[in-house]
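Anyone up for a design puzzle?
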């Protein structure tokens, strides 16, 4: 007889791993079913920025959710390292959001007026923080509480910590559909047989929409290709992440600089291209001219899961009891991982919510709009 798990998670990226980790800590039996290797998709388009303020457009409910998740990170990092013996390279150096031209300056100033606590700094002030910034930098913001992690190390730490607590993994096992019985979700149909569970979580990134459509639920999620590349300068050139329109530069613990990322609507194609890297490098070297002499290391690409309004889907599917979704995090998957894991666990186990999540509810659109 097939085992009945407490929870079956479709998707083994950072979000699926975070959900599984929080659930297994609460005593649930959890299995993750992943179409390929674990954390092989959106994490490849991530540099690990925890840019709750640097990427904010206004001080709304989603912004406050991002701040909440960011506040969890320092203790979460320590907890994961203790359980996995893997450092996620949590670095509390802050992010500089800089303007290189008048148009971007006007845009950033207008955005800053909607972000509580944002204080404009002129170019000289930013260069006192990071002297290698271009003399063309007109000004910007320094967000001291926006930190960073290593995305691949985060995923590996989550995998090891979850496995140590009893989470099981079925890699290279595509999910074909969601099993239902008597009007509720009861598991996953896979290429390797059925997986039965008391509850199902769809955390399949850019593939989530197609999976949900097998049971007639429409939650739009589309792949957004992000290309990145890495350089190795002959000496450390920045300590803080620097970010301008069109690119960011993230210094890593090994001395490399991660630069990204494009935003391309190209279906499920993940092929890196010379043109994209050249465009990124043009902007990056305008922001930080010293990198023109750095050694090229590698380029890569991944698929971020985007939604029409830019907000993730997190919560229960009201049409089908027992079915939950955590998908569509787009550029915020790494940042929102601890909050998504915690809040979904609280919803699934009937615990009080530690932070409001209505802005990301799958039910925020009318039901008829979500039907195919």
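Challenge accepted. My sequence:
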């Amino acid at each position: 007889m097939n085992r009945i798990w407490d929870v079956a998670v479709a998707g083994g990226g950072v979000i699926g791993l975070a959900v599984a980790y929080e659930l297994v800590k609460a005593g649930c039996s959890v299995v993750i079913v992943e179409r390929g290797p674990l954390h092989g998709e959106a994490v490849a388009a991530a540099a690990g920025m925890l840019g709750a303020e640097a990427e904010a457009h206004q001080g709304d409910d989603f912004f406050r959710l991002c701040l909440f998740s960011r506040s969890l990170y320092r203790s979460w990092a320590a907890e994961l390292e203790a359980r996995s013996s893997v450092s996620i390279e949590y670095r509390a150096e802050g992010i500089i959001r800089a303007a290189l031209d008048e148009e971007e300056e006007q845009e950033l100033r207008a955005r800053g007026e909607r972000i509580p606590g944002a204080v404009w700094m002129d170019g000289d002030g930013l260069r006192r923080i990071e002297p290698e910034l271009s003399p063309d930098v007109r000004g910007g913001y320094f967000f001291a509480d926006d930190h960073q992690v290593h995305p691949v190390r985060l995923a590996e730490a989550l995998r090891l910590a979850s496995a140590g607590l009893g989470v099981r993994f079925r890699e290279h096992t595509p999910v074909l559909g969601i099993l239902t019985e008597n009007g509720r979700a009861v598991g996953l149909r896979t290429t390797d047989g059925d997986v039965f569970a008391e509850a199902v979580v769809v955390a399949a990134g850019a593939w989530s929409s197609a999976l949900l459509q097998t049971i007639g639920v429409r939650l739009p999620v589309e792949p957004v290709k992000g290309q990145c590349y890495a350089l190795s300068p002959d000496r450390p050139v920045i300590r803080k992440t620097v970010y301008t329109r069109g690119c960011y530069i993230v210094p890593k613990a090994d001395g490399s600089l991660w630069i990204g990322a494009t935003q391309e609507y190209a279906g499920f194609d993940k092929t890196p291209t010379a043109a994209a890297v050249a465009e990124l490098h043009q902007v990056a070297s305008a922001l930080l001219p010293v990198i023109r002499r750095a050694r090229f290391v590698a380029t890569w690409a991944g698929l971020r899961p985007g939604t029409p309004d830019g907000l993730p889907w997190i919560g229960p599917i009201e049409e089908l009891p027992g079915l939950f979704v955590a998908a569509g995090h787009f550029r915020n998957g790494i940042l929102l991982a601890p909050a998504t894991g915690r809040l979904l666990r609280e919803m699934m186990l009937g615990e009080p919510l530690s932070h409001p999540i209505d802005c990301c509810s799958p039910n925020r659109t009318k039901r008829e709009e979500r039907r195919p």
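A detail worth pointing out: The chain has a mean pLDDT of 95.
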